[in-house]
Design goal:
The protein is mainly beta. About 5% of the residues lie in helices and about 35% in strands. The two termini are about 15 Å apart.
């Protein structure tokens, strides 16, 4: 299978997405129950809700997210702690405070950005639109506050900053990480063989 690395839309954390293989997974005996612990690769589906209980993201109809567990900063640390010790097939609901999730809102986080640096090209931009801006650290989610002829003023806080959020997670599978995944600090897809 071929691997792809993607960013979870709302977090910016890196994950791999690949169909979960059936049968014997790398490093585990067929049918073996393996709890989530350091150096395990975990596949999960999730529904993300804001503090009003409204669904913000949902990957239930897509391939599961896949990450390397164990403090490698592949997940929000509080979310990773909540998954520790859980088993394949478990359903987990985790509510995170703003400082554990997308951070506290910073009122001084408004910047003027040339429209050419916006990644989604639209004929017309409007205040309140969520867009991605190209930065030296890669794409960043921002919200447009004011639109000018050549520039937009954007709020660089994450759209969910200052909010408590709830992740409803379905743990699909768990396997041992391969040595190169541990060395690199992230999964290489479900079978552990996906390249960079």
């Amino acid at each position: 299978m071929c691997g792809v690395t993607v960013r979870l839309k709302s977090t910016g954390y890196m994950y791999s997405t690949i169909p979960v293989a059936s049968g014997k997974e790398p490093g585990n005996k067929l049918g073996e129950i393996v709890p989530i612990e350091k150096n395990k690769v975990v596949a999960f589906h999730y529904v993300l809700e804001n503090e009003a209980g409204e669904e913000v993201e949902n990957n239930m109809a897509e391939e599961p997210m896949i990450y390397l567990h164990g403090g490698y900063r592949n997940l929000m640390p509080a979310l990773e702690r909540a998954l520790e010790g859980k088993d394949k097939g478990e359903q987990v609901s985790v509510t995170l405070r703003p400082e554990e999730a997308y951070g506290i809102r910073k009122e001084e986080s408004v910047q003027r950005v040339p429209i050419k640096h916006l990644l989604e090209k639209k004929k017309r931009y409007q205040p309140g639109m969520a867009v991605k801006v190209n930065t030296k650290d890669g794409p960043k989610d921002v919200v447009i506050i004011k639109v000018g002829k050549f520039n937009v003023d954007v709020d660089t806080n994450h759209p969910l900053a200052g909010m408590a959020v709830t992740f409803n997670i379905s743990i699909e599978d768990i396997r041992d990480a391969r040595p190169e995944e541990i060395t690199h600090g992230h999964s290489h897809g479900w079978e552990g063989a996906a390249g960079h």
